[in-house]
Specification:
- The chain has about 950 residues and is an alpha+beta fold.
- It has five domains: about 5-130, Immunoglobulins (Immunoglobulin-like, Sandwich); about 140-345, Sandwich (Jelly Rolls); about 355-460, Sandwich (Jelly Rolls), CATH 2.60.120.260; about 470-840, Alpha/alpha barrel (Glycosyltransferase); about 845-950, Maltose phosphorylase, domain 3 (Sandwich), CATH 2.60.420.
- It is built from 16 helices and 51 strands.
- Strands 23, 24, 28, 29, 30, 31, 32, 33, 34 and 35 form a ten-stranded mixed beta sheet that branches. Strands 2, 4, 5, 6, 8, 9 and 10 form a seven-stranded mixed beta sheet that branches. Strands 36-43-44-45-51-47-48 form a seven-stranded antiparallel beta sheet.
- A hairpin with a 2-residue loop joins strand 44 and strand 45 (about 890-895).
- The chain is globular.
- The chain binds alpha-L-rhamnopyranose.
- Alpha-L-rhamnopyranose binds next to helix 4.
């Protein structure tokens, strides 16, 4: 062998070895929070997590390659971007800095990381993203549809009238002249669409393209349909439904709003283009246009809230076949949709996330059957039926049964929530699933079923935004486990494109107060990064021109008096902040910064520069004061006191976020502002001598016009202290005293809570923060009204809107309840999970995105002996579990690669803790912290660790 050949071989050997000396491997590659997505972000952010068997491992450098073809994804060949070796431990939100990306560009990428000893690991597996249509000129297709509204007769419903025009069906035959190597469908609609190729639906999404302020942006979706197309003829089909665009919205019907439907436009419309690349390199585009044909089909009524009626006899036979003759159909109408800003849907779509079977069927009078699905959820049912043509099966949906076994439908208010299927009489049987509606239910009442139905005839399809599950939590306490289950189910039922308050009645709005209190919990349970990226945009789109964020988004001002409310409008700042905390997302801050500054200016103006809101400041709202501590019990916390606290709290968050995006001057400004608000608050709302929170209740007169104003107002409420403590409004001394007052109030109230939406989230954290962990546990475990346990004792499988939504076996009490506003699937009170995760399991993010975090569980004296939780953070999976056994506490934790955690181990004394069976202080390689307040601290890098200590 020649020396030169030997040298080349030797250096090749070295370099291939240099490829993987460390076991540090990047995994779970994501672009804009999604795996292998279609995106339209020109500077996408890349994230990965790291795997390694080694303890205390972290990344010191990384290198990213991005190429336009898989073959080019190698060092030296990557044609879009080679980041080269970049020092640092960043593994999330790394901004693409390669060549400018163009429409339809597919990008292949991979990443390599260097470990703490600067040794490189293996390259990751390759991942992809693909750009959508970046220029409006990329859109060749037209908006098409068919307007049936003029010949639709109103249907009487509960003394009102519903207008439910049939859904248009659209059809076009195409011919593909060659073999297909690539095909993409770019599609959107005003209203909702389903698109089919040769009779089979494209994709698995429901309610696409989602709800936005359609005047500001309309989302489109992209589907890879390469596998669906061969050379030859194909039929392209679409079905449209009014959806949020032209269907009914919210409670407009109920409240007698002058407009109840068609808030954005009258006629649903489709815009779609199928772009095909043949194997010979030629391309063809098949667009929605006037060549498409249109008529009505089987879907004779379709609305999100009211449900669907499908007459299978009306489906044109074989319309999905190429030889179908559509000569007698009309040409599709070109819908004048004006100029619309089209953007790629940024989140996980709504999909079927689980299939559930009924657990029992009750036969009632006259061929009426009630199916119990065993779980309250949001979604649809698939109906299987065999019968004669014209047989009509009616499905009504409800969350609960009355004590006498009737379906409870009063709480649906004006939502008809009824699906009807009319059979065509297929001797082999028929199957039907509605397309453009969903219901919140546990029970399905079936009438008109030919014969006696069995459990096989109804299947539950759970629908929701398909946000990946990232959290788990369990204990040895069945009620607490059920509570956690209920929280997760309620989140699944309400994260349906937007965070809705409830999934069943004529409302289902993105109420901002609910969303801000629950955002922290949401992000522990599911990866809601993309979901909230979308909704925070909705929120910014809905911001009033005078700076306030609305009561709900999208659709601000369904009712003109629904403007803004303290504790609700702050979602505009709190939700981006929570997104920053959970995922280290600073782009969401930058994008909304101007909006947030305008909001803060609105606060400054509204408070007249006084740094607080005296009693009556929001008397101009309807209801007066806004919603306040919505659905609390007993005396009301003054809404102006809460408004002051929220003002100061968001000022604090603005300061933190300003720091995160490098706006140091604004950070100081907001820091000072929040200080001034806190001191003005104390001056006005605190009795300095006793530390009690107080108010001038007489300023509210008889309370008329305020939510539950007849209950009277007091500053000395659980909610007042809970917020003052949890929102960091008090100095250490004041906080301690406030904690005592809070504890005292709870004891005076028979050991029970009295909080509403704004108090419930803060109550247990405030108790824990002031040394009353025992009381926090007591509230959690309570089973008497009002409590979480009371709901469970009364059969809840989801979180209720009210503390007393249902009382089992008590018809009298039931009759007295407010069934008009009584949702059984309302996530707001589920915000208690934040405390369960932070305090019971003890996991709490420190640096944003859990780059550093603490594990500090609070061990109760009794009732619970075991807790285990995990969370797959943007930096990897964290686990924390503890159990008590014969005076010992056994704690197991795991810390992701490239992160650090401080663990607080409860122990009798510092010498009493072992790690992996060796006394902690004998581990030479470990950073031992101090022993304080019955806890030994230790700071650890990645790995799993097993501690044992003695406890009382
Ligand atoms: C009701 C719902 C919702 C709440 C508003 C104020 O419609 O309970 O959750 O935010 O009122």
């Amino acid at each position: 062998m020649k020396i030169s050949t030997f040298l080349v071989l030797f250096s090749l050997m070295l370099s291939s070895k240099a490829m993987a000396i460390s076991d540090l491997t990047p995994e779970y590659l994501r672009c804009e929070y999604l795996e292998n997505p279609f995106i339209d972000e020109r500077e996408p952010r890349l994230s990965w997590i790291l795997a390694s068997e080694e303890r205390d491992q972290h990344q010191t450098a990384y290198r990213i390659l991005v190429a336009s073809k898989m073959e080019l994804l190698e060092p030296g060949k990557a044609d879009l971007w080679d980041s080269n070796k970049i020092s640092g431990d960043q593994t999330t939100q790394v901004i693409y800095k390669g060549k400018a990306l163009t429409s339809r560009q597919k990008c292949y990428w991979k990443v390599q990381s260097w470990d703490k000893k600067d040794q490189p690991g293996e390259w990751s597996e390759a991942s992809t993203w693909e750009m959508g249509l970046l220029m409006s000129s990329d859109w060749k297709s037209k908006w098409i549809g068919k307007d049936f509204s003029s010949n639709t007769l109103p249907i009487p419903y509960k003394n009102k009238e519903l207008l439910l025009p049939p859904s248009p069906i659209l059809r076009n035959k195409i011919n593909l002249t060659n073999k297909v190597s690539k095909a993409r469908l770019y599609i959107t609609s005003l209203g909702l669409y389903e698109y089919l190729i040769n009779g089979k639906k494209v994709g698995q999404d429901f309610l696409a393209p989602g709800w936005t302020d359609y005047n500001k942006r309309v989302y489109y979706n992209v589907y890879d349909v390469t596998d669906r197309l061969d050379q030859g003829e194909h039929v392209l089909q679409a079905i449209l439904s009014p959806g949020w665009y032209s269907g009914y919205i919210g409670y407009a019907l109920l409240i007698g709003n002058p407009i109840v439907r068609a808030f954005y436009g009258d006629t649903p419309a489709l815009r779609a283009q199928l772009e095909v690349t043949y194997s010979n390199g030629e391309t063809a585009t098949f667009s929605s246009n006037e060549e498409w044909k249109a008529t009505s089909g089987g879907l004779v009524e379709s609305d999100i809230l009211h449900g669907e009626t499908f007459d299978a006899r009306k489906v044109p036979e074989d319309w999905s076949k190429t030889n179908f003759n559509d000569n007698n159909w009309d040409n599709a109408e070109i819908i004048n949709a004006g100029k619309r800003n089209l953007e790629l849907y940024p989140a996980q779509p709504v999909q079927v996330t689980e299939v559930i079977k009924p657990i029992e069927i009750h036969e009632r009078e006259n061929g009426k059957f009630i199916f119990n699905m065993g779980q309250n959820f949001a979604g649809l049912v698939k109906l299987k039926v065999k019968g004669k043509a014209g047989d009509k099966v009616v499905l009504r949906f409800g969350e609960m049964l009355h004590p006498d076994g009737r379906l409870m439908d009063e709480n649906l208010r004006m939502a008809r929530a009824t699906d009807t299927y009319i059979l065509k009489g297929d001797p082999n049987g028929e199957e039907w699933t509605p397309s453009f509606t969903y219901h919140g239910f546990q029970y399905v009442e079936v009438t008109g079923f030919p014969g006696k139905p069995t459990k096989e005839n109804i299947t539950g399809l759970v629908l929701g935004s398909n946000t990946p599950r990232v959290g788990h939590f369990e204990t040895d306490h069945p009620m607490v486990n059920q509570l956690y289950k209920n929280i997760v189910w309620t989140q699944r039922a309400n994260f349906v494109d937007i965070p809705t308050d409830c999934p069943q009645r004529d409302e289902r709005m993105g109420w901002t107060g609910d969303a801000q209190t629950y955002a922290g919990t949401a992000a522990i349970n599911m990866d809601v990064s993309a979901f909230f990226t979308k909704w925070i945009q909705d929120l910014n789109d809905a911001q009033w021109d005078y700076g306030a964020y609305p009561d709900y988004a999208p659709a601000p001002g369904v009712r003109s008096s629904d403007t803004y409310a303290p504790g609700w409008m702050e979602a505009g700042v709190i939700n981006p902040y929570e997104q920053f905390r959970a995922y280290g997302d600073t782009r969401i801050i930058k994008k909304g910064w101007e909006n947030m500054e305008r909001f803060m200016a609105f606060h400054d103006k509204k408070s007249k520069g006084a740094f607080f809101y005296p009693e009556g400041s929001f008397a101009d709202l309807s209801p007066k004061g806004g919603y306040g501590d919505w659905l609390s019990i007993g005396k009301k916390t003054p809404p102006d006191m809460l408004a002051t606290m929220y003002y100061g709290y968001v000022a604090q968050l603005m300061s933190e976020m300003a720091t995160a995006i490098g706006k140091s001057e604004r950070a100081i400004h907001y820091q000072n502002l929040s200080k001034k608000i806190k001191s003005a608050f104390a001056d006005h709302y605190m009795d300095k001598a006793t530390g009690r929170l107080t108010t001038n209740a007489s300023a509210y007169g008889d309370g008329k016009g305020y939510v539950d104003g007849q209950m009277g107002f007091s500053g000395n409420t659980q909610t007042a202290y809970a917020n003052a403590i949890a929102l960091d409004f008090l100095n250490e001394e004041q906080k301690k005293i406030a904690g005592e007052h809070l504890a005292e109030l709870i004891l005076e109230n028979d050991g029970k809570l009295a909080t509403g939406f704004l108090g419930a989230k803060q109550l247990l954290p405030a108790l824990s923060a002031t040394g009353h962990s025992d009381l926090a546990y007591q509230l959690l475990l309570n089973e008497e009204y009002p409590s979480w346990g009371f709901e469970i004792k009364n059969g809840a499988t989801t979180i209720w809107e009210r503390w007393d939504s249902y009382v089992k076996d008590d018809p009298e009490k039931m009759a007295s309840l407010n069934n008009g506003m009584n949702s059984f699937s309302h996530y707001a009170f589920g915000s208690v999970f934040e405390w369960m995760f932070h305090n019971m399991a003890g996991i709490r993010s420190d640096e944003a995105g859990y780059k550093t975090f603490i594990i500090a569980p609070e061990i109760p004296k009794k009732a619970i002996n075991y807790v285990a939780a995990s969370h797959e953070s943007i930096h990897g999976k964290i686990t924390s579990s503890w159990k008590k056994e014969n005076g010992k506490l056994i704690m197991d934790v795991s810390i992701p690669v490239n992160t650090q955690a401080t663990i607080f181990i409860p122990a009798k004394n510092e010498l009493d803790v072992t790690l992996d069976n060796k006394r902690l202080d004998q581990h030479k390689d470990i950073q031992l912290g101090h022993f304080y307040n019955g806890k030994q601290t230790v700071k650890l890098g990645s790995g799993t660790y097993h501690f044992v200590s003695s406890i009382d």
